[in-house]
Design brief:
3-stranded antiparallel β-sheet; CB; DNA-binding; Integrase-like_cat_sf; DNA integration; alpha+beta; 4-stranded antiparallel β-sheet; DNA polymerase, domain 1; DNA recombination; 3 domains
Amino acid sequence: MLSAMAVSNAKPIHRPYKLSDGRGLYLMVMPNGARYWRFYYTFLKKQKTLSVGVYPDVSLALARERREELRRILASGEDPSSRRKADAAQARLLETGTFDQLADEYVARLKARGRAEKTVTKNIWILEYARPALGNQLVRDISTPEVLEILRKIEARGHHETAIRLRGTLSTIFRYAIATGRANKDPASELRGALLTPQVKHRPAITDPAKVGPLLRAIDGYDGDGAVRIALQLSAHLFVRPGELRLAQWEEFDPDSCIWLIPASRTKMRRLHKVPLSRQVLGLLEKLEGMTGGGQLLFPSPRSDKRAISDNTLNAALRRMGFKQDEMTAHGFRAMAATLLNECGKWHPDAIERQLGHIEGNDVRRAYVRGEHWGERVQMMQYWSDRLDQLRSTEAGVRRRFSQVSASEPAAPSRDGVDESISPDWRQE
């Protein structure tokens, strides 16, 4: 074993030489006088050497401590060299894990997954609430009180829903940081229940049959852009999400099969959504084709046929017709259809949910309920268009049976207009 004096007095010669301390540790003395600690060991029958430090920054005593630590790693069956490389990589990763960097990666992943542009934009917007305070901090150093302070400031301005959404988004980023080795805790998860829960406000919608007729007649009499008028009419008949209709393309429609195929990339649930087209809808599309059929989009912007109308166009048209913001919105056509279709009792609730593009929320039930109720949905969408025609023409909006709505059509093959060969009586299930 070496002594501190022997190490201090080691003189350089014309070539490098070693001074051994035993158990794999030795001092390498270089011709220029530099002295380096090295650890020599064998792993899987291969001889290897690791740097332990530079003398005098690393004393003999410290070099021996490091040697024993390396021997413990070796005794555990692990290669000390591999452990050191992994620790160095982890350290580099931790130092690159600032909140801004993780937030940018999160947004990039949203885009890579094909999330809707509106979804990406909303996430970019909501993250701006946290970037000024957290941006340059390492995610592993962010504490729960720091996150709570940011959320409390948002709450103080009355934006309770925004605070809740930001907490959820931050939690997602922190969990991603944990998964990638740049953090070991999620400080946002500890704030569940710490924020004020806003009262749920449903989107404004007209669901009273007596008021649906006046709405439809007002749309028919809309004196603005003709394509916008048809967009509102189609919203009532198809009750798809406004963004799905606004960005619709002509190539997605098959008039022969009476189907509109909305690609998964444009649906909220990221699943292909099929919409049956009624006779009335086909008629509206024929009118619209004469207006915008020469381009790709059904509803191009007045400024450029390469872009669709804005997401506020339909709401602005409703305001122009006298329907207030708390009375009816473009999204409200979905609630209107869902309410009246469920109330009439003719259609299986699952068929209505599928047509709305919803996914079963219960994981267990979703595993067993995989039917699309397509045959029933085809009949339901024709019934709904006929029902709208009835409500439009009936001042009081009095309900009548499906068979009385469209006298020109042959009688339905079974009760209530539902073909029993396609859909069993769901009320007896």
